[in-house]
Design brief:
The chain is an alpha/beta fold. The protein has nine helices and ten strands.
C-alpha cells in the first residue's frame, strides 16, 4: 500500500466550474479531494480555506469496538460491559453515568497494554493514516475529540498521525487505570476542546470541519462551518452538511 498525492484538473460534481483536486492513490484505488476552486463558483465554501478537520473516534474512525470496550476486552471484562450497555440502551442508565460504571471495570489494567491491544483488537476504517497524510499535504491540521478515554485517543493520534487528541480523563496511577474518571467531557465538552485548540492555533469556526457519527457530535456540527456525518445516526445526518456511509475514511476528502 502506498500514497501518492498530485494535482489534476477535474470537474467536481457539486460545482459548475472546474476545480483543482488532489488525487490520492492507495494501492490500485484512487480518490479525489478538493484542493482549491477556480473561477466564480456558486458554493459558500469556495472562498473559505479549511485549516482544521476534527474527528470523533468511536464509530467514526472505528467500527463495532469502541474505546472503553477495547479496555474492557483487554481486562477480561467484556461480559460485564455488555450488561451495563443493556441498561443504557433501555434507558435505565444515562450514557455518562454508564461510562462511569464502565470505567470501574478497568481498574487495575496497565496502560502499557493499550498500544498493542489497539493494533490487534480495534477495527478502524480503511486508510486513516493515508487520509491524514493527504490533509497534511494541504496544510490542514487534524485532531481527535472524543468523549472516550483520552489514553485511547492519544494512541490513535500517535499511530495515525493526528496533530492533537482530546478525551475524557481516566485516572492512571503508577501506570495502572484506577477505575475512576477525573473529568468526563460529555458532548458540551467537545466544544470546549475544539475552542481550546482553535484559540491556541488562531483558527476560526468557519475554517474548521467536523466529522462524526452521533448526538455528541452535533454541537461540533453546529459550531463548525461544515460537517460530515459518517455512518451516522439519523439525528446526526440531519444536522450535517454532508452524510456518507462508508468503511473508507478517505471518502470524506471529496467534501474538503
Amino acid at each position: 500500500m502506498y500514497l501518492q498525492c498530485f494535482f489534476a484538473r477535474t470537474p467536481h460534481k457539486n460545482l459548475l466550474l472546474h476545480s483543482e483536486y488532489v488525487i490520492m492513490k492507495v494501492g490500485s484505488r484512487e480518490c479525489s479531494c478538493l484542493k482549491t476552486v477556480s473561477g466564480n463558483v456558486l458554493e459558500e465554501r469556495s472562498s473559505i480555506m479549511t485549516k482544521l478537520v476534527c474527528f470523533d473516534l468511536d464509530d467514526t474512525l472505528t467500527q463495532e469496538i469502541h474505546s472503553v470496550m477495547l479496555l474492557c476486552m483487554l481486562h477480561g471484562k467484556l461480559e460485564q460491559l455488555l450488561e451495563i450497555e443493556k441498561l443504557e440502551s433501555n434507558g435505565t442508565l444515562q450514557w455518562i453515568e454508564s461510562d462511569y460504571q464502565k470505567a470501574a471495570l478497568i481498574k487495575g489494567l496497565p496502560v502499557e497494554t493499550l498500544h498493542e491491544g489497539f493494533i490487534k483488537i480495534l477495527k478502524p476504517l480503511h486508510n486513516i493514516r493515508q487520509t491524514i497524510h493527504c490533509l497534511k499535504e494541504r496544510d490542514i491540521r487534524s485532531v481527535i475529540i472524543t468523549a472516550g478515554p483520552v489514553q485511547v485517543a492519544d494512541v490513535a493520534k500517535y499511530l495515525w498521525g493526528f496533530d492533537a487528541s482530546y478525551g475524557s480523563n481516566y485516572e492512571v496511577l503508577d501506570g495502572v487505570f484506577t477505575g475512576k474518571i477525573l473529568e468526563h467531557i460529555g458532548d458540551k465538552g467537545k466544544i470546549s476542546c475544539l475552542q481550546h485548540y482553535c484559540r491556541i492555533n488562531k483558527l476560526l469556526p468557519n475554517e474548521c470541519i467536523a466529522v462524526g457519527d452521533g448526538s455528541t457530535d452535533i454541537p461540533l456540527f453546529e459550531y463548525c462551518d461544515t460537517s460530515i456525518a459518517i455512518n451516522a445516526s439519523e439525528g446526526a445526518r440531519q444536522k450535517a452538511t454532508f452524510s456518507i456511509q462508508t468503511n473508507d475514511i478517505s471518502d470524506i476528502l471529496q467534501f474538503i
